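Run folding on both entries below.
>entry_1
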Amino acid sequence: MSLHPSVAAVRLAVRRMLADLEPGDTVVVACSGGADSLALLAATVFEATRASWQVIGAIVDHGLQEGSAEHSDRVAAQMRALGVSESVTARVTVEAPGLGPEAAAREARYAVLAEIAERFDARVVLLGHTLDDQAETVLLGLARGSGGRSLSGMRRAFEVYRRPLLDLSRSDTETACLIEGIESWNDPHNSDERFARVRVRAKVLPLLEDELGPGVAASLARTADLLRADSEYLDEVATAALDSARDDGSLSVSALAGLPDAIRTRVLRMAAAEAGALTGELFHPHVLEMDRLVSDWHGQKWVELPGHVRVHRKHGHLVFEPNSG
């Protein structure tokens, strides 16, 4: 009996993403109980058997929905039934001043996944984001006017995290679960149109597909790949420029003024993030106001940044400092 194409595609994506691992390495798979993460987990367990890896299934309970603890216990049992070496349930408190609920939950989730990876000495943590998730991210970034950084979408790999499924559709993961007899969970938040991402998923992308023809999601995801290479290169240049502009804890205005606009604005954003500004709330207007301290200086006092950070110009330097007011 031949292997169903969707099951084969998920397994191949995992195999390629983990090609650099050695026998005995440990892999953490973040699993919510949805089709994407369960298909990813099942494929990873299958590949691990062949490659002698240890697979840790991890579910993070944010406590944001009634019955979340019971759901986490069900998913943990499901992960064990799929053959993980060990399942871990982590319960977190979602509290991040200055962030919305989605961003705060994401911060808490990544923090606890990093702790789990360290605990098990894992080489990688796998995340189940798909091509559809990537398309939604790009479209939201475009709508918000967030610039090339947002349009480049989600990275395929960063720190210990990897996303094997970014070239596969949500339909692929749902079909893989169906073929393998895996019962997946539909998060109620995924149909709650109070969230912009849900509206993009349920209304905007289907409308674009209807009006422009099929393949819009794939085209948006491809755009992210193309822009990411450019953005990563510019970030490398900006990192070097930031180091050159440093002067005793501040940034030299003359050094900044000599930079091309595309590099200078990146440098300012990086410096703000280093000073403690909330990157999830640091938008282009903030960066433009910082840039005016360099390129359009006429005695203005300071710029307030999200995260209680203030930047002002003093004696030819930009100074970032906490704002406790």
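>entry_2
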Amino acid sequence: MRIYGILSRWNDQRGFGFITPNDGSEEVFVHISAFPRQGLRPKVGDRLLFTLEVGADGKRRAGRAEYPAQRNSRRGPIRDSPGRVQHGPGRIRGFLALLLVMAVGYAISRYQILLPARSKSPVTAAAREPSTPDYQCDGRTRCQQMSSCEEALFFIRHCPDTKMDGDNDGIPCEDQWCW
């Protein structure tokens, strides 16, 4: 049978104490071995749930002592000795998730650095209309003879027999000037 009680006395150095049952009966001895190994350290005033056993000496003692569920959320991190804190699995998972996010962010930033930089983004041929036609058809027909994308656009639109738009998409000299 499980009994509720309150830890009324506790000697942390010797690892034992006494529980006062909620039913008003006399105090029951409890040893540290009755608590879960990875659980919280007992403190006077803790509410406990335990079984009643009879020891080798014939006296009543608490066995399988545990804390009701609300204690874990109320007390914070697990302390197995003064000054030493054990963090629960939720904190560890959160820390690992943070490390993963940071590693992915770092990898993305490194990948961006490794990508070749493009000084100009691709623009349609219509957006590259020459503002003032200062050019005239003078027999030039190849990209190597041009000095800018604007000049190549003028020649492909206004001059015959140009050889600057190999894929016929309206954008001349894509490898050299108009990329």
